[in-house]
Specification:
The structure holds two protein chains of two kinds. By secondary structure, chain A is an all-alpha fold. Chain A has one domain (25-111). Chain A is 70% helix and 0% strand. Chain A has helices at residues 2-12, 26-46, 48-62, 68-89, 101-111. Chain A is globular. Chain A starts with a helix and ends with a helix. Chain B has one domain. In chain B, helix 10 packs antiparallel against helix 18. Chain B is 72% helix and 1% strand. Classes of the chains: A mainly alpha, B mainly alpha. At the A-B interface, helix 1, helix 2, helix 3 and helix 4 of A face helix 6, helix 10, helix 13, helix 18 and helix 19 of B.
């Protein structure tokens, strides 16, 4: 009986918001998935910062956002902020990366006063 | 009674400690923002917040997540009413009367009714939660494994039959979830199942990994497929909240009561959460309400019914979580995860071992409900502005937080790969109309169901009838089977009617 009520009330009113999908872009999703896979693949090699900042920037660009200055600022500052938060405040260890990339991570950690 | 009040008083003292209060306010604001953003659901928001609590004290961690959960049931209504963009699936019923009311030029009144509904539903459910929790825990102390199994079984089936969409698809989704839950070393006999020689898989697949992947990453991929484009927003110059007068409010007291009751009951059922509560409450109001004929034309009852139910489901869902360790909804599953991460197992014994934490969490629900309404009253205009923020940037960070959360949990890259895999699974489910909630629920409740089933089999000499012959488990099993059989029966009856003779 309960399902009846739910179903009927929903059927009566088809409006589920402006959810009409104009076009689907399967290639874009595949691109997003490939990009994410690449990111996971490389994060231990490059370290958190060197992998994440380009990943976020590329994701935003892939999503069709074309204000490059904003994109660069958002991806750089956001990545640094998250790195600072996790490593300095909640002590979660993030991938440092292999040499020589680890040097970049260590440099950033020194600059931000982590450890 | 006096005892409960005393404990609750101590709970409030804990909540008002500066650090906890700060965490609570942050949680409220995050919850409201998550609720406003259509690309970010409430459950996903709570999942993403989890890694940030790893290093917190257990009380603060639970308060943060609970506050997000409470306020996440509220703010999505604003965007439904103002822009016809439901911020959460919960808020779809808000389109039918809330948006209609706004179109009649009564947006401020609609927001006022929403606020009052959230306040009344939230506080009433919180009161019921406090009053019921201890007695329920005392009853639960007498439960043995057959009762636990029966309750979990009911939870698994309830989400299937209340899902609304195709029953077959919901069942397939649920079984896939149960199958995923079997991966790893079996608890009773130590046999390896579906590990394919991969060491990390012998630890099993953590339900948080599945949740982060399917809800978090999957949702981002889904939004990506439509190019992160939303329909242009209606322009709204004036965002105010005008509360209804006492007389107007008391005229709708029946609706308030029904909505709250439905919300609490749906919340208590393990598995079904705020979305089911909201739809069900609207449906019942449309069939049995005093002004049922006018529902959908923009009357307050159409706002009160879903909103009271959505917010009151939080209090309901906390009851099985705290008293039995069985999550009553997606968000409570994550809160359960947070409890376990901090080495605290919710269950009937928790009132003896850590009652101060439990009552602090209870008190935080009260404070959260009031706090979110205060913030909502003054800051609706400010908070809905986040819709102007490019969604793709939020999504990029959501993906990053998903991966970060996976990595932080066990410091293992295999978990991150699993998240990516479940992200794709979540996307495909959404794309081909398999509901994700039963899958996730299967992964969460599957191990609980199995352990209780196996322990029962061992203690009762493999006698499966014990589930049906013990009074409590027998009743629950019967109700559970009815919830599954009834939709099937109805389906065939309708088919028979339609078929030419």
């Amino acid at each position: 009986m309960l399902e009846d009520i739910v179903e009927e009330s929903v059927k009566e009113r088809g409006d589920a918001g402006p959810g009409v999908i104009a076009e689907r872009r399967p290639l874009l999703v595949l691109g997003g998935m490939a990009l994410t896979a690449a990111y996971v693949w490389i994060i231990q090699e490059l370290g958190f910062f060197l992998a994440t900042a380009p990943y976020v920037a590329a994701f935003i660009a892939l999503g069709g956002y074309r204000r490059w200055g904003v994109n660069a600022a958002v991806s750089l500052i956001g990545t640094l902020a998250i790195m600072f938060f996790f490593m300095k405040l909640v002590y979660v260890s993030l991938p440092l990366g292999q040499e020589p990339f680890a040097q970049v991570t260590f440099f950033l950690m020194r600059v931000m006063g982590i450890r | 009674m006096l005892d409960i009040l005393q404990h609750l008083g101590a709970g409030f003292v804990h909540v008002f400690a500066p650090l906890n209060l700060l965490v609570l306010v942050i949680g409220l604001i995050l919850g409201l923002l998550v609720a406003v953003l259509p690309g970010l659901t409430l459950v996903m928001g709570v999942v993403l917040a989890l890694p940030f609590t790893y290093n917190m004290d257990v009380t603060a961690a639970i308060i943060l997540l609970t506050a997000m959960y409470v306020s996440g049931t509220y703010a999505g209504a604003w965007t439904s009413i103002l822009f016809r963009v439901p911020g959460e699936p919960i808020d779809v019923p808000m389109l039918w009367d809330g948006y209609a009311m706004a179109r009649k030029g009564q947006a401020a009144q609609a927001l006022g009714w929403t606020l009052l509904a959230a306040l009344v539903g939230g506080l009433a459910a919180a009161t019921v939660m406090v009053l019921l929790a201890h007695p329920v825990a005392n009853i639960a102390l007498t439960f043995s494994t057959p009762e636990y199994f029966a309750i979990i079984f009911f939870g698994l089936l309830s989400v299937v039959s209340l899902g609304g969409s195709s029953l077959a698809n919901a069942l397939i989704s649920l079984f896939a979830g149960l199958l995923i839950a079997t991966v790893g070393v079996d608890d009773t006999y130590g046999a390896e199942r579906f590990t394919f020689g991969v060491r990390i898989l012998s630890d099993g697949i953590d339900y948080l990994v599945v949740m982060v992947g399917a809800f978090g990453l999957g949702e981002v991929f889904t939004r990506m497929e439509i190019g992160f484009k939303s329909a242009p927003l209606d322009s709204v110059d004036d965002v105010n909240t005008r509360l209804p007068s006492l007389k107007e409010a008391s005229a709708a007291k029946g609706t308030f009561a029904r909505g709250t009751l439905i919300g609490i009951l749906v919340g208590i059922v393990p598995g079904a959460g705020a979305t089911v509560a909201s739809f069900l409450s609207y449906g019942i109001e449309a069939q049995y309400g005093k002004r049922r004929k006018l529902m959908g034309t923009g009357i307050p009852e159409g706002i009160i019914a879903p909103q009271t139910a959505a917010t009151s489901s939080v209090g309901g869902a906390m009851i099985p979580l705290i008293t039995m360790g069985i999550p009553g909804s997606g968000a409570t599953a994550i809160i359960l995860g947070a409890f376990l991460l901090h080495g605290l197992q919710p269950g009937p014994q928790v009132f003896q071992t850590s009652s101060h934490i439990v009552y602090a969490v209870f008190a935080s629900v009260f404070v959260s409900v009031i706090g979110m309404c205060v913030i909502g009253y003054f800051a609706t205009k400010l908070l809905v502005r986040v819709l102007d923020f490019p969604e793709v940037i939020v999504s990029a960070y959501v993906v990053m937080c998903c991966i970060l959360g996976a990595f932080a949990a066990r410091n293992n890259i295999t978990d991150v790969w699993l998240i990516a895999v479940f992200g794709v699974v979540g996307f495909l489910c959404e794309r081909f109309r398999f509901p994700i909630a039963p899958l996730v629920l299967g992964v969460i409740l599957g191990p609980l169901a199995e352990t209780n089933f196996m322990t029962t089999m061992i203690s009762f000499d493999n006698d499966w009838t014990v589930f049906f012959t013990r009074p409590i488990s027998g009743t629950v099993m019967a109700v559970a089977i009815l919830t599954l059989v009834y939709p099937v029966f109805r389906h065939f009856r309708r088919k028979a009617r339609r078929a030419p003779i």
